[in-house]
């Protein structure tokens, strides 16, 4: 049967696929719209399979904190190239992923991707559809939540970095400003843990061994190596754990002191730093 421009435009409006892809799908489906939609979906599945191993170093990181400020969510939707990350359809999909993440109480990526959308199809189906339309791999590469007495979010200006920080002992104070400062500290300084108690044993052992090797290379006596290594480990804690880091805006205080000065006993319970690229 003849495929009219009106038919092609209707399918394009319903699927968002390109004009030529819609025309080819309708032609293959002999004008049947539902069959044509299935053909377009299969096109997305083929691209998803073909590009499964491709690197995704561009995309968008979004955060959201609930109304009472106790739960924060951060997601990262990645693609292969920067131009795709600027496309309106990609931006809309990122917002859809964030909305699904906020409503997904299980906190697992698998359940997130299975979240049904308004049309009854899963979030993963919608991601696959856009892959078919754009021709690139698209993937949810991060999905994190933080629950605390108070959660503050920070989004970097490049749209590819987001931070959630959970605070406790806020004593009813408005801690938004200091929370933002701490979140920006996390973004810039990339701490590996809240405090030294959060550093895993393997990392500690590795730092001790590195400290010993450095001291040995400098010709220090063997009996002094352990003490020197412990000193280097303490320096590592100061540089790499959030509460022990010097505050970037005022190096005379640590993050722990900054928080305590704002509200007695206030501290960080956890944080999440998510970046693309």
From TrEMBL:
Membrane-spanning intervals of the chain: none
Main location: cytoplasm
Domain of life: Bacteria
Keywords from the UniProt entry: Cytoplasm, Elongation factor, Protein biosynthesis
Localization of this protein: Cytoplasm
A GO molecular-function annotation: translation elongation factor activity
Pfam family, one: EF_TS
Translation elongation factor EFTs/EF1B dimerisation domain segment(s): 72-277
CDD domains, alphabetized: UBA_EF-Ts
Keyword Hydrolase: no
Family stated for the protein in its record: Belongs to the EF-Ts family.
Function recorded in the entry: Associates with the EF-Tu.GDP complex and induces the exchange of GDP to GTP. It remains bound to the aminoacyl-tRNA.EF-Tu.GTP complex up to the GTP hydrolysis stage on the ribosome.
Database matches in NCBIfam families: tsf
UniProt protein name: Elongation factor Ts
